[in-house]
């Protein structure tokens, strides 16, 4: 099948629109239910639909959000007035996307490591999602740091290969692949150890992408920031995270990639925004050379959590929750100018 390169490039550019980022609302049913339970919200299909409607229809969200990543349940759902969520996003100038992996499973013969499944039948599922209006897809590979032997080279290789095969299938289907190799924050590893592992993972991912003939101009990378583990006794400053992350990317990511959209990975909302802002403040002319790719965000909890807590499953809280959502998106829009200030959170 001939790949429509101009279409892929056009979509990728729309996803990386200046001053905007992506919102991931692709939590699985089990993950969404856990968050609902913690907030005292009933774990039902209708409540999940109502929550996703709140997110999709938030007034002004399109000013700061270029794309939304949906879940299989969500892409088939509609608002109370009957409009499909995909149509609402399109009307707001937001590119609809879809999560297509089936989750990380234990990797045989590799204790403490996982591999993401979902390649079987993926070609057919991608065609169906494209028919529903999706223009990009996302696949997450999960890398654990746990002692000297984890991750192993075998664990890195199998996840990189799966990401590359997924990406090639996406482009065949006319969908931009969002390639997400996530080095988890769990553990007590140092900033330097995270940088070492992240660089090794990214270099292997791009070797596999080249092997599978993925067109870099028609893909988006969704990596972790380089951070110390949550249990590390020495937590680096915002500027240290910014410098370590950008230097790692410069060593690992080809200039042809359409863009880089960071995951938040469990970082506190303010920390994720501050670190992204520092990257933009510290790596721009004339102080530093211009970066070869745009940097933005593809956050989930780091944007959604205040809205979820305010909503709490009650319709009378809907407007306040939507304002909180848009405010968090606005804060991250400021980060893309290097202008985020924690004082904005109280605005």
Tally of extended strands?
A: 10
For the residues shown, what is the average pLDDT?
96
Distance between the termini: 51 Å
Q: What count of helical segments does DSSP give?
A: 12
Q: Which secondary-structure class do the elements indicate? A: alpha/beta
Q: Could you say which overall geometry the principal axes of the C-alpha atoms support?
A: globular
Reading side by side through the largest sheet, how are the strands ordered?
A: 1-2-3-6-7-8-9-10
For the biggest sheet, the summary is:
8 strands, parallel, barrel
Rg of Cα set: 19 Å
Strand content: 5-15%
Contiguous runs where pLDDT drops below 50 for at least 5 residues: none
Helix content: 40-55%
- Run of helices and strands: HEHHEHHEEEHEHEHEHEHEHH
Brief overview:
The chain is of the alpha/beta class and 347 residues long. It is built from twelve helices and ten strands. It has helices at residues 5-15, 29-38, 45-56, 72-75, 85-91, 122-131, 153-172, 191-211, 238-252, 269-282, 301-311, 318-335; strands at residues 21-24, 65-70, 95-99, 104-106, 114-116, 136-143, 176-183, 220-221, 259-262, 295-299.
What does this structure look like?
- This protein has 347 residues and is α/β, with parallel strands linked by helices.
- It has helices spanning 5-15, 29-38, 45-56, 72-75, 85-91, 122-131, 153-172, 191-211, 238-252, 269-282, 301-311, 318-335, and strands spanning 21-24, 65-70, 95-99, 104-106, 114-116, 136-143, 176-183, 220-221, 259-262, 295-299.
- The strands form 2 sheets. The protein has an 8-stranded parallel beta barrel with strand order 1-2-3-6-7-8-9-10, surrounded by 7 helices.
- The radius of gyration is 19 Å and the shape is globular.
- The N and C termini lie far apart (51 Å).
- The longest helix is centred in the middle third of the chain and has 21 residues, at 191-211.
- The chain contains 12 helices and 10 strands.
